[in-house]
Design brief:
The structure is a homodimer. Chain A is of the alpha+beta class. Chain A is built from seven helices and 26 strands. In chain A, strand 3 and strand 4 form a beta hairpin. Chains A, B: One of its GO terms (biological process) is DNA strand elongation involved in DNA replication.
Chain lengths: 368, 368
């Protein structure tokens, strides 16, 4: 192969596929980036067999062909290339990069060793605006389990029912739910659990100027296409919890307050808790009249915060894991928030006036 | 004590003194910040007995007094305070912070336990423009030894001789030298080795709008005063190498080239070297005619860079540790640089046309 493209194009390619490159626990030739030069473009591909990313960038191709290059070294070299036109040529399994009067020769691997990704050319598909999808990911990803949990909790449920698309995540302590209207003329339904890592990659790679995202799926895989990027991922096997059952339909107390106020008060209260011997940092909310009080006493000090709120319904005192509150406050898209409570032992719901299609449910912590 | 000041003032205080707070290997009450409220100001003090930093911020003091507070927790709390007026009051050894309708009570220690810093009120002193001093630090600090070295190499020689101030650092492989004219009407001479940590703190704390810096010294300590900051440090004991002896006064080859060109080429060549088994990353410069060639071959690939240069004198081929070259290229204040060479086994000198009072000497590496 022989092709010419800008340093920026190469950089876009390696940055886009990097997170799909296998980690250090596989053979070196699998920690690689596959390149294919075609007329007018250079295609980048990487996969760790869980997730595969494909990206194409503009290039002037003289001779078509393929290369399989060590991902880390090739990416590092691309980052350091001068900002000019680069010629990339294969010499057997190796690559030769030329710029100005300089050149880099880099040993590669046999491109035939690169695993083929499943083809989803003819599956069920629909599209939605990329901006809405980005918001949905941002608001739900926070509730997915991080580590040491059953696989289904480390993914997000992607569900299409009629003209509604839903994204739901839970780690059993809290649940985030977001929905959006979609164009689904064929009335196709789908439900699958997408790994969190895939979702955060989509979030990272989606640009604000990507018009729409096309989702295609089979029983075991789902693919997302936007701009010049094509991302394919395995689905997580298993039964996702019945989220409809756990979302309460009414509440006894409803308060409105400023996101920033609550966030800063909980952050300060957490500082004292963190230094104490406990472990989980609890925050106790005392709602009384038009005031929300947060009090926390440890052996190193005491904090007492007081916030103005608008309230409907009964007074209540309830405790939460402060991290679970902070997680959602940091992603809410508006200054205002609503807290819906039904008792010190019942699930609470946080909503935002900016997006009525979103809710965050969290379980209280029992205290004495 | 009772005083009122802005959140920003408190933040300036804790950020300024934080690097002087003792690490975790001392008693908790020494990992602390000392506060003294006086008329119109609040004074912050911290010391690990090597370095002491004092800073004052504007405050409306109602009652004078002192407090000794746990540094990390107090700093974290200050960072999270709302952007408003804060009232800070002592209650026995504890602090009470008030803002809006909220308050934080934080246990402290007996202020009498805070170690006194030596007083340098009446020592030898001179001043110099802070901008010049910042440049001198930036250009020389890179050559000081980092770890596992004799103490004298982990400091910078601060030397005043007549109306010349010098700053010199060396780790025995390279040496950085910078000088500046100063106002020294009393003709006082001084020479002392200042810890690198102190120098990087001064660099961090010096603001561009600080007019000048006043330096005072005794035999064992030196202090630096600028803006509202007063920094005191122990000197390192020992004999600094005779730098005058090692700086060559002439050279056989002189080349001029662009800093950016050399930096990027050496960075790329280092990438290949880093991946090889060697350890130290060598770079071989081949100067021939009006070209500088960098060639590097390892078992994973080969790089061949070629740069245009202006040359006076003989052709030469010489090898360096590439990190030692990159360190200086990253701090040179101009686009242009000069390389002075006297043979493949002789010390080389890098200079910048933007500052004729600066030089960086480095020893070549012998290769076969």
């Amino acid at each position: 192969m022989k092709t010419h493209c800008s340093k920026d194009a190469l950089l876009t390619g390696v940055n886009t596929v990097q997170k799909a490159v296998s980690g250090k626990n596989v053979e070196p030739d699998l920690q690689s980036i596959f390149l294919r030069a075609e007329a007018g473009k250079l295609i980048f591909l990487a996969t760790d067999m869980e997730i595969g990313i494909r990206c194409e960038v503009p290039a002037e191709t003289e001779t078509e062909g393929t290369l399989l290059l060590p991902a880390k070294l090739f990416s590092d070299i691309v980052r350091k290339l001068p900002d000019t036109q680069i010629t990339l040529e294969s010499q057997a399994e190796s690559a030769n990069l030329e710029y100005y009067q300089s050149q880099i020769f880099l040993k590669g691997y046999d491109p035939e060793q690169f695993p083929l990704l499943p083809d989803l050319l003819d599956p069920v598909s629909f599209s939605l605006p990329s901006e809405s999808f980005k918001t949905m990911i941002r608001e739900t990803l926070i509730a997915a389990a991080q580590e040491e949990s059953r696989p289904i909790f480390k993914g997000l449920l992607l569900e299409m029912e009629g003209s509604v698309l839903r994204l739901i995540a839970t780690d059993t302590h809290r649940l985030a739910y977001s929905q959006s209207g979609i164009d689904n003329p064929n009335g196709l339904d789908f439900s699958g659990i997408v790994p969190s890592k895939t979702m955060s990659e989509i979030y990272r790679l989606l640009k604000d100027d990507d018009d729409s995202i096309t989702v295609r799926f089979t029983g075991s895989h789902v693919s997302f296409q936007f701009g010049a990027v094509h991302l394919l991922t395995r689905l997580i096997e298993g039964q996702f919890p019945n989220y409809k059952q756990v979302i309460p339909s009414s509440c006894r107390t409803k308060i409105r307050l400023l996101v920033k106020d609550l966030m800063e008060s909980v952050e300060r209260a957490s500082l004292l808790a963190r230094e104490s011997s406990a472990g989980v940092s609890l925050v106790r909310l005392e709602i009384s009249g038009d005031l929300l009080k947060i009090e926390h006493t440890t052996d190193i000090g005491k904090i007492s915060e007081q916030l103005s709120i608008e309230k409907e319904g009964a007074d209540i005192t309830i405790s939460f894991n402060s991290r679970f509150i902070l997680d959602v406050l940091r992603v809410l898209p508006s200054d205002q928030m609503r807290f819906e409570l039904s008792g010190p032992q019942s699930a609470a719901i946080i909503r935002t006036p900016a997006d009525e299609n979103y809710l965050y449910l969290l379980l209280p912590v029992r205290t004495n």
